[in-house]
Each structure stands twice: as C-alpha cells, then as structure tokens.
Amino acid sequence: MLEIDDLRKRYGDTVALDGVGFTVRPGELFGFVGANGAGKTTTMRIIMGVLRADSGEVRLSGRPVTYEDRRAFGYMPEERGLYQKMRAAEQVEYFGRLHGLTPAAARTAASGLLERLGLADRRDEAVQALSLGNQQRVQLAVALVHDPAVLVLDEPFSGLDPLAVDALAEALKDRAAAGVPVIFSSHQLDLVERLCDSVGIISAGRVVASGPVEELREREGRRLLKVVVRGAPPGWADGLPGRVTQDGERQVLLSEGGDDQEILHAAVRAGRVEHFGWQRPTLTEIFREAVA
Ligand SMILES: Nc1ncnc2c1ncn2[C@@H]1O[C@H](COP(=O)(O)OP(=O)(O)OP(=O)(O)O)[C@@H](O)[C@H]1O
After folding, report:
1. Kind and range of the H or E element at 32?
2. Could you give the number of structural domains in the chain?
3. Cβ-proximal residues to 146 (8 Å cutoff; 6+ apart), any chain
4. Would you state the pLDDT for residue 284?
C-alpha cells in the first residue's frame, strides 16, 4: 500500500502542496486529477524522491519509502527524459539494465513492451526520428520495463492516439492486476472514470475528494432527482423544487433537495412516469463542483 501523508511544499511564497494525503492500495488504479497548477506533478515528484517535501511522508507497506524501494518504482516524468539519439529498443533495454535486469531479461522485456505498445517496427529507429506520440510510447516502455512494484505516471495519456490509449490502458490494468499500486495524472476525466478504481481530486494543493469512483458518484449523486413524465399538463410541477424542461411529449424535472415522495406523488398525478431516480453525476461534474 502506498500512503501519501500530509505532504507540504512551498516554492518561495507559492504554496504548492498544503497537506496532500491519499492512499493507493495494491492492485488499485488511482487517477490523480486537478486543474493546471493544482499540485499533481509536485506530489508525484515527491513520491519518486526527485523533490523533497517540506514536511509529510510517503510510506510503502507502512514504512517510509527508501531509495532502494524507489529503484523498483516505474516513473514517467512530466518533463520526459529519453536519449534522443539512442534507438528505441536499445533505450528501453538500457533503462531495464539500470533497474537491475540482466542483459537478456532487459532485451526480452523491451521487445515484448515495444510489441505491445505497437512499436515493434520502429524498434531500431532513433528516438528523435519518432513522432511525439511514439516517443511517448517509448517513455512508457521505459517506465514499465522492470515490472515496477509501484507505477507513477505524469499525464501518460496526453498526446496519444486512440489505439495507443487503449494499449496503455491495458498495460496499466495488467500492472494493477499483478498487485501493483498504479497512480497516474490526467486531464481526460472520461478516461479516468472509465479506467480507474479510485480517484483523487486535488485543488490548490489539497485533496478535496478521493475514493472509489462509484462511491464518489453515489455520494454526490443523491442530491439530484430526475423525473420523466409523459403527457403531463403544463404547470404540473409548480411549487415543487426544481427545473422542468420539455422533451417532446415528455416533461423532465430535475430537482435538488426536494422531498422525493412528494415529487413522486405529484408526478403520478400528472401523467405517466417513465423515469424516477437519483441522478449520478459524471466525474467531470464532481470535478467541477469540487474545484469550484
Ligand atoms: N520549480 C518551481 N518553482 C516555483 N513554483 C513552482 C515550481 N514547480 C511548481 N511550482 C508551482 O507549484 C504549483 C503546483 O504545480 P504542479 O506542477 O505540481 O501542478 P500540476 O497539478 O502538475 O499542474 P499541471 O496540470 O499544469 O501539470 C503551481 O502553482 C506551480 O506554479
């Protein structure tokens, strides 16, 4: 289990992190989301030990993370970091060796990953000759080559085409299924919602909401009631809390904070009730509200 506990970090007068804390369990795919400048990169750099927190702690399996632990982590930094003149496969192998793999194991792992990420036919090209998206795939292979014990990826999906997004999503799910805590940041909330077990929403250096996506949607979702009534006369919802819109023959009432039984009775009296239920917000809606 990876525990991030009360991280604080200032850059001069700028408070980048103001007590960031969350937990990523083994096998959990954790999406880290927040507006530009909210503190995601700073948090991930501290997890990886490339930046020191002013205070707070990162723990793995209950004890502070050490240099040795971090050698087994996989990291995709925001600033990226490939040797431009090195060939793709050679590069991935090289990083595998740095993480302690034997030459043969590094070669096998590099070939397998490049194949999986759709780069097998580019394996002997210099990184600088690859498109940005393909360079990103190489960067991902570098993060994954040693079967990392913890995976930390800073915006790994940005700039990838849909096929590469799918390939990466599968690779991350596989690592998580092997019991690894996986954390990645992204601005693609629909992707995070689809892929992640849990999310953390960070705003101005604080985690303002975190937990399993379904729990967050459930928790936030009880506030908005959606009622669809066919054939209701105009004004049937006068006096009820909420907003009514017309959708063909149907009237749709979205109500916040009303008495659901009172609304149900009014709807039944007014016409044929086709839908009556709590509306679960999307992650994007939760995000907008949390960072507002
Ligand atoms: N080296 C630095 N010197 C000064 N301020 C910094 C430095 N690095 C980050 N900051 C500030 O710290 C805050 C958090 O930045 P950070 O890069 O962690 O945000 P982020 O959530 O990753 O943003 P983005 O989504 O834009 O990548 C911002 O206000 C940023 O301007």
Report:
1. strand 29-34
2. 2
3. 72, 74, 95, 96, 99, 100, 101, 109
4. 85
The ipTM is 0.95
Residue 221: band (very low, low, confident or very high) from pLDDT cuts 50, 70, 90: low
**Cα dist. 54→41, 58, 90, 272 in Å?**
15, 12, 38, 61
One domain, residues 231 and 168: no
Domain with residue 260: its CATH number is 3.30.70
Query: Which residue segment(s) compose the domain that 67 sits in?
Result: 2-218
Shared domain for 45 and 161, answered yes or no, is yes
Name which residue sits closest to atom 29 of ligand 1, judged by CA.
37
Report d(CA 168, CA 171) in Å as an integer.
5
Would you say the pTM of this structure is higher than 0.95?
A: no
Nearest CA owner, ligand 1 atom 17: 41
Pocket residues: Cβ below 6 A from ligand 1: 11, 14, 16, 34, 36-42
Out of 10, 40, 51, give the residue to mutate to test ligand 1, the one with the largest number of ligand atoms within 8 Å of its CB: 40
Ligand 1 centre from 41 Cα, in Å?
A: 7
- Closest listed residue to residue 205, CA positions, set 291, 134, 277, 281: 291
